TrEMBL record:
<protein>
    <submittedName>
        <fullName>SpoIID/LytB domain-containing protein</fullName>
    </submittedName>
</protein>
<dbReference type="InterPro" id="IPR013693">
    <property type="entry name" value="SpoIID/LytB_N"/>
</dbReference>
<feature type="compositionally biased region" description="Basic and acidic residues">
    <location>
        <begin position="35"/>
        <end position="48"/>
    </location>
</feature>
<feature type="domain" description="Sporulation stage II protein D amidase enhancer LytB N-terminal">
    <location>
        <begin position="169"/>
        <end position="259"/>
    </location>
</feature>
<keyword id="KW-0812">Transmembrane</keyword>
<dbReference type="InterPro" id="IPR013486">
    <property type="entry name" value="SpoIID/LytB"/>
</dbReference>
<keyword id="KW-0472">Membrane</keyword>
<feature type="region of interest" description="Disordered">
    <location>
        <begin position="35"/>
        <end position="71"/>
    </location>
</feature>
<dbReference type="InterPro" id="IPR051922">
    <property type="entry name" value="Bact_Sporulation_Assoc"/>
</dbReference>
<feature type="transmembrane region" description="Helical">
    <location>
        <begin position="6"/>
        <end position="28"/>
    </location>
</feature>
<keyword id="KW-1133">Transmembrane helix</keyword>
<dbReference type="Pfam" id="PF08486">
    <property type="entry name" value="SpoIID"/>
</dbReference>
Amino acid sequence: MKNGEVYGSYLVTILVVAILSVGLMHMLQGGEESRDSIVGNEKTDSGRTDGSSGENGNPDGTAGGNAGTQTSVNPTVRVVLMSTGYQEIVHPEVRIAASSGLHITYGGQTEEWQAGEVLTVRPDDARFAAGNIRVTAAGQGDEIQVYQIERGYGNPCYAGTLELRTTAEGIVMINELPLEDYLCKVVPSEMPASYEMEALKAQAVCARSYAYRQAASYGYPEYEAHMNDSTDYQVYNNSQPQDTAAAAVRETAGQVLLYQGQIAVTYYYSTSCGRTTDMEAWGDAVNESNAYLQSVAVCGDEGDYEKELPWYHWTAQVPVTTLSNLVGLNTGVDVGTLTSVEVTRRGAGDVALQIVASGDKGSVTVDTENKIRRALGGSGYTIVKNDGTAVGSTELLPSAFFTIEKSGEMFVIEGGGYGHGIGMSQNGANEMAKQGKGYQEILGLFYPGTELSAY
């Protein structure tokens, strides 16, 4: 070849290599994005209070998801919508409508549904032959109302997309929407929207951090869904959306708690007895990764923040026969008539970690706070709260911060707090906010060693 031809050949070669390199870099960057994104990468036990706060946290102490340092801002989450009363994840039929009408897509086909008209879908719907059915509201900003579900405020409405999947048991509904929109309906469902703004902001950060952790993997891989809308994770859309809760989400947008560079699992519950506990309450060893979930004093210059609240302290006098029956029923061990119930091991914050219930037919040992609360819980006796009001007992003892003594034909239980006691006391946060504490200080008290970070 001539020199010019050689030069031209070299130039073409260089250009081809450059183009291929750019394409390769783009592919690699795209792959990195998909690995860092929550979308496509895929559980909290709650003791509800007397119309106030909720609690989250797995009684077995598991986080329910992998730690993540995701980089997506406001990623999409997929939430399984359970039936009325959060009994099942399947529905015998689905009945939905939107004031602006519905867009229905399946297998590449699209249908338009009239404004306000109810769409009924059953498991044998012919549309399922083409695949999953996805439904959105026709109008921008409009939401889809679901009529076969009852929540705390009636038939709930959902933003984003409803995806319907048919199964042998019925229809599974998945709500797909941006995480920040999801939080706007978690915060008022987990904390009363009438609470102080700084407490609501603390709740928003906790809910966001917890949601990111759950969204790091699929809780329901068979449905490509991250979580459900019950206390298994966080309660979603059980209470009507409120401007205050939405403002708390908006004003903390993207903020999470980090511990050692990872998103912290931000457990929370209703009310403390003036102190919290650590992960040993759930049978987990306290280690370097969960050290921020430690026992702290929930108090200020004037004493315990919650000392005037109803669930701060409570007492119950339980007839021996009643507690004997409940222990036998709840543990599956017939110990006969109880002669003693002894707390044989305590943990941080003086929480009960183990009890031994002994009767004339034998004894049973119960470990961890949730199982202890369940063993001594159930209907049949009255609990008198700090303010003198009395309520009926429920399936769980209010908390595992208690003492128990036999007095004649009664067992006297004296306790404090409501919930599992790990992480943030929601009512404690509200009382702190009333005393002028900001959400950063609130979070710093309940999760020592964590860092508030824009994510």
